[in-house]
Amino acid sequence: MRNLIFIKTIAFVLLAVLVSCGQPVKQTSSIRFRFDNILDISYTPTEGTPGGGWFSDQGSWMGFTIPQSDNWINGFCGPFSLDYRHWMAHSAVRVSFHAEGDEIFVSDSINYVPGQLYLAAHSAKGKIEQRLEFIDAYTALLSIRTKGNHELRFQGDKWAEGTQFETYQNALIARHPSGEIVCISFAPDARLTLNSHNYEAIYSAEEEVYLTISFFNNEKEKTAGLQKATAILSQPETYLKTNHQRWEEYLTKIVRTDMPYRYNRIAAKSVVTLMSNWQTHKGGLLHEGIVPSHAASYFMGFWAWDSWRFSVALASFAPELAKNQIRAMFDYQLPDGMVIDCIYSNPEENNARDSKPPLAAWAVNAIFEHTQDTAFVREMYPQLLAYHRWWYNKRDHNQNGICEFGSMDGTTEAAAWESGMDNAIRFDNARMVKNAEDAWSFDQESVDLNAYLAYEYQLLKNFASIIDLPFNEPDYTANVADYFFDTERGFFFDRRLSDGSFVVEEGCEAYIPFWTGIASAEQMERALVLFTDTAKFSTYIPFPTVAADNPKFMPKGY
């Protein structure tokens, strides 16, 4: 119970730090429209600047931004290629009233609600409203509403250099030198013309019109995608309703009636952030999943323990995506059971020099708790078991049932990556010891790793019971907490292989025995002395990765 109270206290304090003063819940029957301006992604592209965050959904590899009011384009900016990191156009669809010359539009309002972008602007001729929503991983639907008896004109703005254009039926095909393709599909009655560097499409005077913007990686995707775009334009309201229901279901499962608006807004923002980083299968990514951040080029892949954590978050509102996230990492499980560090759409970029902390069983368990899907447990169990065994086979140097972080190439760099704490000061003086030709360990046993393994052991044992299989794995879990607890200092530390001495660096690895539930009440009482010390862990922003009074503590930095 004390462990649970401590964990809840940590969660509450962190949440309280993150949130700001809120506002009353907005009175609307739609949940998603209560959370307006959920993220600020206003950015107008300029030459050589990629930007830093996009509207994306449904696993698409394209993203859009809202134009800046002081650098206005009367259309959503993009698409941006999230994988290749370039703008296909500053705005593939810029809208105006059909008239001679270029009109000057002034921004009226913008919004980003979960699953939808909105902008409105006016010129001397009137006001135009635009909404953008993703229908699937390849196509977004643009809705334009205006009043008055004016035709609408659509053009692209600053296409990427080298883009080549053609038309197919009533669609524009824009081919980027990278091989990526943007297709803009118009209604059958739109008048589409083309020149060497742009297009023009004219819609007759109607209060609401629709068109689709699609992004494809190759010809095969384009062929199927154009057929889907035609279907979308034939009944756009049906597809918009489906998308609305999807987002309402996400948020219904997350938003709580017993929480203040400001806390629910944080929850909604978390969902939006996760889903904007959703990428469908592509190239070497054989299943869909969540990338850590599409805002950074080096995070456009799937990392092992990021994947486990994302899956836990997704389990409550998007369990099928959570399952595929796990499958994506296990697609690259090595014959000896190792799950590699990270994978990319280009497999040449994969990192197999190290693994990551063993939290996959935790993720599978979260999915099972929300879905009761025993078939998924049965599917994953052999791979989870092989991964669990790998740690004891390849990362237990002296075969004492206590493991170490390590690497395949014998480098301390990759071994630190394996811990997930790349620059942790507890490893500053660590050296590598060889276990096998493809297996090296730090010369110190880590408390967090073995706490994770103890938790994983209990989960695997429970999985075996659920799917009615025998479980005969050796149990190394009984003494893990006592082994790593320094009774003199009242805290958890790593231990050196050479003499069993403690690596006395007070760090966040000591949180993990409490999170996994293996620490005793007495150990809790002792550790709370440090956890509640304002000079160590109870800082203004609490729970730093290393005690704040450590000479190596950096208030700013990684």
Short description:
The chain is α+β, with helices and mostly antiparallel strands and 558 residues long. The protein has 13 helices and 27 strands. The longest helix is centred in the C-terminal third of the chain and has 21 residues, at 374-394.
Question: Spatial order of the strands in the main sheet?
Answer: 5-6-7-8-15-12-11-10
> What's the count of strands?
27
- Class inferred from helices and paired strands: alpha+beta
By DSSP (H or I, 4+ residues per run), the number of helices equals 13
- What's the shape? elongated
Task: Sketch the major β-sheet.
Answer: 8 strands, antiparallel
Alpha carbon gap, first and last residue: 34 Å
Helix fraction, binned, reads: 25-40%
Features:
alpha+beta; eight-stranded antiparallel sheet; four-stranded antiparallel sheet; 22% strand; elongated; disordered N terminus
Describe this structure in words.
With 558 residues, the chain is α+β, with helices and mostly antiparallel strands. It contains 13 helices and 27 strands. It has helices at residues 2-18, 219-234, 236-252, 261-276, 304-315, 319-330, 360-371, 374-394, 412-419, 447-466, 480-484, 512-515, 521-531; strands at residues 62-65, 77-81, 86-87, 89-97, 106-113, 116-123, 126-134, 139-146, 152-159, 164-168, 171-175, 181-185, 191-194, 199-203, 208-216, 278-279, 289-290, 302-303, 342-343, 406-407, 432-436, 439-442, 444-445, 485-486, 491-492, 494-496, 502-503. Strands 5-6-7-8-15-12-11-10 form an eight-stranded antiparallel beta sheet, with helices on one face. Strands 4-9-14-13 form a four-stranded antiparallel beta sheet, with no helix packed on it. Helix 7 (360-371) packs antiparallel against helix 8 (374-394) and helix 8 (374-394) packs antiparallel against helix 10 (447-466). It is elongated and about 85 Å long. The relative contact order is 0.08.
